[in-house]
Amino acid sequence: MTMAKIPQRTAVPVAPLTVLLPDDVTAPARARREVRSMLLGLGLGEAQLDDLLLATSELVTNAFEHGECPQRLELSYFEGQLTLQVHDTGSRLPELRAPSPAAARSRGLVLVQALSEDWGFEFCPGGKFVWAVFRIPGA
Predict the structure, then answer these.
(1) What is the rounded average pLDDT of the residues 9-18?
(2) Nearest to 61 by CA among 120, 105, 115
């Protein structure tokens, strides 16, 4: 009896994406375009992009509105896990606030928390990163 050898699929990390962000209101749109392009390159379909692009918009918008200056977005993918990080020069900590039903704003991090597996922040030279992690099975 012979047993056929099936090649094992090994995970190869995808080169991380770094996007320098302008310090103006075009930053979220630029970030979404770049993230969308990378995710389509990973083989995700349009229907799988909505949550990730919404989280991208929210993190970049928060950096623009509450950080001192958005610097860059970094996106990395390895073994089904996608990590999105947005760097800004501010020292102000992100706050997860429960929005009032009448409030038109202040839902950004609530949305990121709901859409991601995990999120958080860390200080780094020159500011901080706010990050979110997503599971992307089969990409």
Answers:
(1) 64
(2) 105
